[in-house]
Amino acid sequence: MAAPFDVVGIGNAIVDVLAHSTDAFLARHSLPKGGMTLIDAHQAQRLYAEMGPGVECSGGSAANTMAGLASLGSRAAYIGKVHDDELGRVFRHDLTAAGVYFATPPMRKGPTTARCLILVTPDAQRTMQTYLGACTQLGPEDIDADLIAQSKVTYLEGYLFDPPAAKEAFTKAATLAHKAGRKVALSLSDGFCVNRHRAEFLDLVKNHVDILFANENEIGALYQTVEFDDALQAMRGHCEIAALTRSEKGSVVLAGDEVHIIDAEADVAVIDTTGAGDLYAAGFLHGLATGRSLADCARLGGICAAEVIGHVGARPGRPLDRLIAEKMG
After folding, report:
1. What is the reported pTM?
2. Which CATH number applies to 5-11+60-112+136-328?
3. Which of 69, 120, 207, 212 could form a disulfide with 242 if both were Cys (CB 3.0 to 4.6 A apart)?
C-alpha cells in the first residue's frame, strides 16, 4: 500500500529562545558548553531573566527535521505534546505553516508548553537549557496507529526518551511501524542523553531501529569508546543503516558491508550550529524517500545541514527544494 506520508516524527514539541552569549556567562552559570541540560520551571524563569535579548521560534529536534522534510518536498507528519497556551499555539501554527501535518490534541491542564533556552557563543556552539513542560506528558496513548502505518518511516527523537511513558510510546510506534512493513529511524540527539539511557538505547537500536542518526560524541557514548573507528566496528550489524555526522569532516554512512564517506560542504560560514543534525536527518530521509543512493542521501543531508548553520535558528532559511536543485540537479 502506498504511504501518504514519507516520514512521521515523534519528539519534544518545544519553542526555542535563542540568544547570543559568552563563554564567561556559561561558566558563571555552570552550563556545559555544546550540550543540552534539562531544567525545571524555576530554573527556566531564572535563566531567561539573566540571558540577553532572545528570538523566539518553534523548535524541537524531530519537529525541525519534519519542517526540513516539508521544505524539501517530502510529506511529513508530527506527533508531540503542547499545552493549549500561547506558546503551544505558536508551535502548532509554525509547524503546520511549514507544511507538516500535526494533529496531536493540545493539553487543557497540566504543565505549560516546553521551551528551550539556546545560548549561542561566538564560535557558533549552542548550549541548550530545556524545560520540557507538556512534552513529558506524551505517552503510548498519543501514538496514532493509522498515522504510523501510513508513513514510510517513523522517526524517533532521542531527547524524548527520558520519561517512562515516552519509552512505551517509542516501543509502541516501532512495533506498529514494523507490523505495517515500514521503517523506524532514531536520532540519538545528545551524548548526555545517551549516557543516561545507554543500555536502553542499545536495546532500541539492536531490536527496533532500522536507520540510526548520531554524531561522533553520541556514537562514542553509545559504544563507550573515544575512537570513531572503534564505534563503527562495534555497531556493525546492529541496524540496517547508520548515518554518522562528523562536523567539518562530513559524514559516514554504514549499511552492511557498504561504507560511504562524504565530505562536508565547502566554504560554509558557520553562524549557529543549532539544528545541524536535525536538518542532516531531513536531507538523508528525503533522499531515502525519493529512492536516491546512500551516498546521495548523505550529500543531501550535508547540504541541508550547511544551510541551517549559515544563519541563526534551527529551521531552513530558504526553500530547501530549490537549494538541492541548484546543488545536485
Report:
1. 0.90
2. 3.40.1190.20
3. 212
